[in-house]
Design a protein that fits this description.
It comes from Rhodobium orientis. This is Protocatechuate 3,4-dioxygenase. Keywords: Dioxygenase, Oxidoreductase. One of its GO terms (molecular function) is oxidoreductase activity, acting on single donors with incorporation of molecular oxygen, incorporation of two atoms of oxygen. Residues 8-269 form the Extradiol ring-cleavage dioxygenase class III enzyme subunit B domain. The chain is an alpha/beta fold. It has one domain (3-279): 3-Layer(aba) Sandwich (Protocatechuate 4,5-dioxygenase, Chain B). The chain is 34% helix and 23% strand. It has helices spanning 14-21, 31-34, 38-47, 98-110, 125-134, 138-141, 160-175, 205-217, 227-234, 241-249, and strands at residues 3-10, 51-56, 71-74, 78-79, 94-96, 116-118, 144-150, 182-188, 254-266, 269-279. Strands 1, 2, 3, 4, 5, 6, 7, 8, 9 and 10 form a ten-stranded mixed beta sheet that branches. Helix 1 (14-21) crosses helix 5 and helix 7 (160-175) packs parallel to helix 10. It is globular. The structure holds 3,4-dihydroxybenzoic acid (DHB) and fe (iii) ion.
Amino acid sequence: MARIVGGLTTSHIPAIGNAIARKMFEDPYWKPFFDGYPPVREWLDEVKPDVAVVIYNDHGLNFFLDKQPTFAIGAAPEYRNDDEGWGIPTIAPFKGDPAFSWHLIDNLVHDDFDLVTCQEMLVDHGFTVPMQLFWPNYADIGIKTVPLVINTVQHPLPSPRRCYNLGKSLGKAIESYPEDLKVVILGTGGLSHQLDGQRAGFINKTFDRMCMEKIVDDPEHFLDMSIRDLVVEAGAQGAEFILWLAMRGALTGKVTARHSNYHIPISNTASGLLCLENAA
Ligand code: DHB
Ligand code: FE
């Protein structure tokens, strides 16, 4: 049976993709950020997951404001990136696992989560940047992926509770898959940031620290928050924290934080890195 080995969170900002392309790992601005990742890569080298389910938000590459699903999932053999206008060079495609995707779709729809199913799907920086950070050699090792998109772009957004419950359903679905796959779940984006309006550049370190602590042992702390509460505390784009909550909902066992790093700012964003191990 498939097993959930853990959950990872990371910021996904496009500037990271640029810094990776330019190999700016030792640059004084970037070093404290990139230095957070080697311990997580060591953990991944140890655990060797077969599949990554990547919970992220599409920012306008695959879906735009004319058609914006609340939840969408990939069921394609391969996922490509495309030019989003950030100056990031196009990178190698990511492998999919259609059979596993369809198993997840069957189970999630059965649990009343009506996902848009995508047999063709472009993946944007919300997906590609975290994949590159955790698996710089993803194309060589051939790790398989399932992109799972939650709308954080066009209101109304799904509530923290609904995203956490989607995660729970996802966790159950993964563990009922008959193949012996080791699955890691990513929740990308966050932490506090606001890119537009009068509060552009807003960062809330106190709230971020609380999020990084409580999501480990007490994720239900967030379930009565509204999207508006999240926006007030974490900024308009800090609402991406719902992606972390969906990831956390999918961790079914005893959860331990193996590594964490918090760094402010990169671009306009507080970066939060977490490696959560999920023991049966
Ligand atoms: C930035 C942050 C994001 O979450 C994003 O999707 C794009 C840009 C930023 O801080 O630059
Ligand atoms: Fe984002």
